[in-house]
């Protein structure tokens, strides 16, 4: 099925990104014989359209920066792939797909070093700008703590549409694979994320960010919980 034929309300929703489509098609090619691939992809497309038909219409469409590559709608597309291909896919594969969408941008920023006050302050300003976008669209409800010299950056989300979607559709088991990329992205900036809870299994998703050489990390070792979330003590 052509993307243009997919029955979604484009006045409020967006199509999965081209990189996301490429990722899903690559996995379908990996797992299915050629004669089945087109039919499997169409099942993913139809599931995506079906799920969106019952979903929020207030997420801002193309105007909202959260709806770009690797964002909310790409997460929904990956969840659609997961539903259709659950028998053959894996947690690590889903995790890898989201990494392939998110991490290329961060790899271009390898010169950033969160251990240095200059870059840490710029990162803080970027999070403040992101909050202004959240305040406009009210998709992710975000708060950012005041900046303090020499201390980690802290912000949190008390609402996440991807988590909300997963909870509504019984797909919380795959959310860790979509959330763990937050750790990997920070590591490319010589930073570390310290997280203790998420919107999937708690009331907020917390982000404490510091340089990867910060002594703060000694008191917050990382581990994977039973669900697969990377988190910290």
**Strand-and-helix sequence, N→C?**
HHHHHEEHHHEEEE
Count of individual domains: 2
**Category from helices, strands and their pairing:** alpha+beta
Q: Are there runs of 5+ residues with pLDDT below 50, and where?
A: none
User: Which percent bin holds the helix content?
Assistant: 40-55%
Radius of gyration: 18 Å
Tell me, rounded to a whole number, the average pLDDT: 97
Q: Which of globular, elongated, flat, extended, rod-shaped describes the shape? A: globular
Strand order of the largest sheet: 1-2-4-3
β-strand amount: 5-15%
Structural account:
It is a single chain. This protein is of the alpha+beta class and 233 residues long. The chain has two domains: 103 residues, no CATH class; 123 residues, no CATH class. It is 45% helix and 12% strand. The protein contains eight helices and six strands; from the N terminus they run H-H-H-H-H-E-E-H-H-H-E-E-E-E. It has a four-stranded antiparallel β-sheet. The chain has a two-stranded antiparallel sheet with strand order 5-6. Strand 1 and strand 2 form a beta hairpin. Helix 1 packs across helix 2 and helix 3 runs parallel beside helix 6. 33% of the residues are buried. The mean pLDDT is 97. This is L-2-amino-thiazoline-4-carboxylic acid hydrolase. InterPro entries: ATC_hydrolase-like.
Topology:
Blueprint: H1 18-31, H2 34-53, H3 72-84, H4 91-107, H5 117-137, E1 141-144, E2 153-159, H6 161-168, H7 175-179, H8 181-187, E3 191-194, E4 205-211, E5 222-224, E6 230-232
InterPro entries: ATC_hydrolase-like
Pfam families: ATC_hydrolase
Protein name: L-2-amino-thiazoline-4-carboxylic acid hydrolase
């Amino acid at each position: 099925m052509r993307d243009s034929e997919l029955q979604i309300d484009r006045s409020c929703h967006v199509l999965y990104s081209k990189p996301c489509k490429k990722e899903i098609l690559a996995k379908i090619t990996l797992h299915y014989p050629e004669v089945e691939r087109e039919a499997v992809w169409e099942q993913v497309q139809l599931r995506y359209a079906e799920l969106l038909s019952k979903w929020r219409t207030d997420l801002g469409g193309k105007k909202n920066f959260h709806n770009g590559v690797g964002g909310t709608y790409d997460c929904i597309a990956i969840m659609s792939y997961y539903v259709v291909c659950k028998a053959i896919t894996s947690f690590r594969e889903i995790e890898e797909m989201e990494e392939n969408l998110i991490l290329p941008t961060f790899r271009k920023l390898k010169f950033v070093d969160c251990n240095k006050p200059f870059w840490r302050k710029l990162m803080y300003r970027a999070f403040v700008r992101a909050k202004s976008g959240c305040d406009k669209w009210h998709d992710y409800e975000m708060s950012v703590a005041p900046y303090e010299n020499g201390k980690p950056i802290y912000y949190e989300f008390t609402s996440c549409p991807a988590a909300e979607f997963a909870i509504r559709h019984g797909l919380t088991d795959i959310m860790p694979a979509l959330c763990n990329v937050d750790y990997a992205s920070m590591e490319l900036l010589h930073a570390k994320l310290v997280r203790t809870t998420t919107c999937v299994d708690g009331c907020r998703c917390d982000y404490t960010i510091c340089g990867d050489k910060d002594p703060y990390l000694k008191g917050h070792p990382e581990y994977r919980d039973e669900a697969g979330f990377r988190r910290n003590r």
